[in-house]
Amino acid sequence: MDRLSLFSLSLLLLIPSLCFADEKLSSSAVDSNDSDDLLIRQVVSDGGDDHLLNADHHFSLFKRKYAKSYATQEEHDHRFSVFKANLRRSKAHQLLDPSAVHGVTKFSDLTPAEFRRNYLGLKQRRLKLPADAHKAPILPTNDLPADFDWRDHGAVTGVKDQGSCGSCWSFSAAGALEGAHFLSTGELVSLSEQQLVDCDHECDPEEYGACDSGCSGGLMTTAFEYTLKAGGLEKEEDYPYTGRDRGPCKFDKSKIAASVSNFSVISVDEDQVAANLIKNGPLAVGINAAYMQTYIGGVSCPYICSKHLDHGVLLVGYGSAAFAPIRLKKKPYWIVKNSWGANWGENGYYYICRGPKSHNVCGVDSMVSTVAAIHTTK
User: Fold this and answer.
1) In terms of domain of life, where is this protein from (predicted)?
2) Which pLDDT value is given to residue 330?
């Protein structure tokens, strides 16, 4: 058995639950000397149980930074216990994902089940395509640039926050249409995720219960199907986000700001994903979010990660190499826009490794779709 296999086996024996994904830390966060950085360094230090030293002090820093308060002493004590468990989880993730940085995030007082229930929401079912979906044609890949980022070309709106609602799928779908609309019209418009949450109940007719269901989850391709049938999406300002799914649908067809022409699913091939990204704009992507609860920064490239997809995000670009800790080579990566606010990850973004050695890490290449907008002249 080679050294890597022995290492992976030892990690499996030591760490019974491996279900979180990581994110990229900015150099400013790495170089910071403030108390938050001290907390992060404490979590990822090399000592055996050093990450639990002064846990009460770190919990106080966490509560202050994220304005956390608890109704009762019992709830406070419970959250402190969860916080300490997440310090251990951060340590485990750091061992499994050394090219990223893991530590305390705004989700550090949530159990894994709470995190999945409130902040994920991609319904991975049999990938039967909606009636209007197509398989994307094969594109030439000979002259792909080494680096590409749609943020540099004006096709990406600011980072949004889905709150404690499993509506990630709606942010992924709306973000892809925002980019497609920009390519079609030259106009960047923030589109309404709440319209999808309230009004989109598109279902797979061959699978019982496989429907877009607001805060209870959904799928980007069926969101595109709904948008195609409805005629389009309103602007965010006309149909603002509430993070709740109990209200009625308030869709006003006269206020449509962007419309779907067609949408396609891309093959599981990194070069085809990159080619479609460049040609068609930001792409709706499913990912396994196992390491993302503890992710702070860097390029996430875990040794072990499930390909069960549970989170919808937006692929906006890629790079040929990025910062990695000393002793590790620089890694090519995808640039992923998340929907947990700018105070998570790399200013709201997640960097995950790509390339032939990444082997579709965390399933990032498994569910990729592109949408085209109807051209309109302003």
Assistant:
1) Eukaryota
2) 75
User: Within the chain, which residues score under 70 in pLDDT?
Assistant: 1-53, 124-134, 205-209, 322-329, 375-378
The pLDDT of residue 51 is 54
Nearest CA among 287, 286, 290, 295 for reference residue 343: 295
**Beta strand 260-266 with 133-135: parallel, antiparallel or unpaired?**
parallel
Q: Catalytic amino acids?
A: 168, 311, 338
Closest CA to 25 of 88, 87, 86, 102: 102
pTM: 0.85
pLDDT at 39: 47
Task: Note whether 82 and 1 are within 8 A (CB).
Answer: no
CA 53 to chain centre: 31
Q: What angle do CA 307, 215, 70 make, to 5 degrees?
A: 100
CA atoms within 13 A on the CB side of 138: 3
Give the integer Cα–Cα distance in Å for 323 and 330.
Answer: 6
Q: How far is 73 from 359, CA to CA, in rounded Å?
A: 46
CB burial of residue 293 (10 Å; 0-12, 13-18, 19+): buried
**Residue whose C-alpha is closest to residue 26's, from 378, 296, 327, 207:** 296
pLDDT score of 187:
96
Q: Which amino acid, 309?
A: L
- Roughly what angle, to the nearest 10 degrees, separates helices 168-185 and 220-230? 60
Report whether CATH 2.60.40 matches the domain 18-109. no
- Evaluate whether 357 touches 307 at the Cβ level (below 8 Å): no
Q: Which amino acid is at 188?
A: L
Q: Which CATH superfamily is domain 119-373 in?
A: Cysteine proteinases (3.90.70.10)
Domain segments of the chain: what residues?
18-109, 119-373
